[in-house]
C-alpha cells in the first residue's frame, strides 16, 4: 500500500502496486543534460512509487562511463524501477548479428532490463527485424519496438492572424498518411507475436498540434493492440492530460521526470475522466 496518505493503489480504482503491467509511467533519464546520481536518487526517494521505468534516451548510455551506468541501474532496481535503452540498438544492427549480440550482452551486464528498437529508422526487411526481437527475448531481456505515427502536414490546421471578419482561404487537406497507420499496426502486431513486451508509439505529429480527427488514430492503435501493450510518448503535460481524460489511469505513458507528480495527480482516484485539471484549463485541441 502507498506510503502517501492521499494515494492508494487499489486495483479497482486506479492501478496495482509495482511491478505494474498497465498504468506504467516511464521517465526520461540522461540525455540533453547529465543527471547526477543525487538527482536520480531524489526522484526515486520522493516519487519512486509512481515511477515504473527509466529510459536512457538518445543513446546517452553509449557516452557515459560504464561504472556510472551500473550505479544508476542498481539504484533504479533498488526502487523497483526497470531500466531501458533508447534510440541506439538500431545503430548496432547495421554492424551485423554478432555485434548486436555483443551489445545485448553488454546491456545485460550493465543492468538494463529492456531494449528499445526504433523500427521506423531502419531499412531492414520486416522478417529481419522480427528476428532481432526474438534475439532480444532469447537473451533474457524485454523487447520494446518503437513506431512513429506521422501525418501529412496539410492535415494540421494553420493558425493565422487575420483582421476582424476577414476571409481566409482554407488550406487544402489530404487524407493520405506519410506512414500508413494500418501498416504500422500490422507490423506492431507481428512484433507482439514474436515476443515483444510493449509497443512504444511516438505520436508527436498526432498529439502535439493536430486537430480532433487524429484522435481516431490513437483509438485505432489502442483498439487493435490493446491498452496494456502500448505506451505513448507524452511530450508535454497537456498531452498527458488528454490521454488520462480519454483512456483513464491505466494508459502507459513516457514523460519527462518533471511531469511525474502532475501525471500521478491526473491518474489519481476518480480523476480519470471527469476531473478538474491540476494543470489549469485545457487548451488541447481534441
TrEMBL record:
Cleaved signal peptide residues: none
Pfam families named in the record:
ComA
Q: Which superkingdom does the taxonomy of this entry point to?
A: Eukaryota
Which protein family is it in?
Belongs to the phosphosulfolactate synthase family.
Do you know which PANTHER family this protein is assigned to? PROTEIN HEAT-STRESS-ASSOCIATED 32 (PTHR48413:SF1), PTHR48413
Q: What is this protein called?
A: Protein HEAT-STRESS-ASSOCIATED 32-like
Amino acid at each position: 500500500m502507498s506510503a502517501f496518505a492521499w494515494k492508494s493503489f487499489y486495483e479497482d480504482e486506479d492501478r496495482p502496486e509495482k511491478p505494474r503491467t498497465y498504468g506504467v509511467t516511464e521517465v526520461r533519464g540522461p540525455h540533453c543534460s547529465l543527471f547526477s546520481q543525487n538527482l536520480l536518487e531524489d526522484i526515486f526517494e520522493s516519487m519512486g512509487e509512481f515511477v515504473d521505468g527509466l529510459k536512457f534516451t538518445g543513446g546517452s548510455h553509449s557516452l557515459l562511463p560504464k561504472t556510472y551506468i551500473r550505479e544508476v541501474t542498481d539504484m533504479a532496481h533498488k526502487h523497483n524501477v526497470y531500466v531501458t535503452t533508447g534510440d541506439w540498438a538500431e545503430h548496432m544492427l547495421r554492424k551485423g548479428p554478432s555485434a548486436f549480440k555483443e551489445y545485448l550482452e553488454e546491456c545485460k551486464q550493465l543492468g538494463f532490463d529492456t531494449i528499445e528498437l526504433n523500427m521506423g529508422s531502419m531499412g531492414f526487411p520486416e522478417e529481419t527485424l522480427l528476428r532481432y526481437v526474438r534475439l532480444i527475448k532469447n537473451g533474457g531481456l524485454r523487447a520494446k519496438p518503437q513506431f512513429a505515427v506521422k501525418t501529412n502536414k496539410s492535415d494540421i490546421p494553420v493558425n493565422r492572424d487575420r483582421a476582424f471578419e476577414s476571409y481566409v482561404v482554407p488550406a487544402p487537406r489530404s487524407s493520405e498518411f506519410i506512414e500508413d497507420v494500418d501498416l504500422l499496426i500490422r507490423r506492431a502486431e507481428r512484433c507482439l507475436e514474436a515476443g515483444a513486451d510493449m509497443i512504444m508509439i511516438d505520436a508527436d505529429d498526432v498529439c502535439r498540434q493536430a486537430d480532433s480527427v487524429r484522435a481516431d488514430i490513437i483509438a485505432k492503435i489502442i483498439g487493435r493492440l490493446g491498452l496494456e501493450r502500448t505506451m505513448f510518448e507524452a511530450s508535454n503535460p497537456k498531452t498527458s492530460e488528454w490521454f488520462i481524460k480519454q483512456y483513464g489511469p491505466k494508459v502507459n505513458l513516457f514523460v519527462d521526470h518533471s511531469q511525474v507528480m502532475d501525471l500521478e495527480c491526473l491518474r489519481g482516484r476518480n480523476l480519470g475522466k471527469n476531473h478538474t485539471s491540476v494543470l489549469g484549463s485545457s487548451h488541447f485541441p481534441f
